[in-house]
Amino acid sequence: MDSDPEQAADRHARAVIMAIFAVILAVAISAAFITTLEDIDTRHASDVTQPGTIGLAKRAPGEALRN
């Protein structure tokens, strides 16, 4: 079966367009990821509570247990 030069050129053009689209998509995803990382507060939570607070996972003094 002979290959038509026009079809080969179309396949080549389609492959080039898909490659360019893939590169642009990868750059956009990377930029979004980096931008998101800049806005994230990277401080870690700890189980040490601030003075005068009871913390989120502790019962307040005198509070009854609930089932």
Features:
67 residues; mainly alpha; 1 helix; 0% strand
- Low confidence ranges: none
What share of the residues does DSSP label as strand, in percent? under 5%
Oligomer: single chain
Largest β sheet strand count, sense and barrel closure = none
Helical proportion, percent range = 40-55%
> Could you give the distance between the termini?
77 Å
Mean residue pLDDT: 78
Structural classification: mainly alpha
Output the number of helix runs.
Answer: 1
Order of secondary-structure elements: H
Shape: rod-shaped
Overall number of strands: 0
Radius of gyration, Cα only, in angstroms? Answer: 29 Å
Describe the structure.
It contains 1 helix and no strands. It has one helix at 5-39. It has a domain at 7-38. It starts with a helix and ends in a 28-residue tail after the last helix. It is mostly helical. The chain is 52% helix and 0% strand. It is rod-shaped and about 85 Å long.
In short:
The protein is mainly α and 67 residues long. The protein has one helix spanning 5-39. It is rod-shaped and about 85 Å long.
Q: In terms of topology, how is this protein built?
A:
Layout lengths: L4 H35 L28
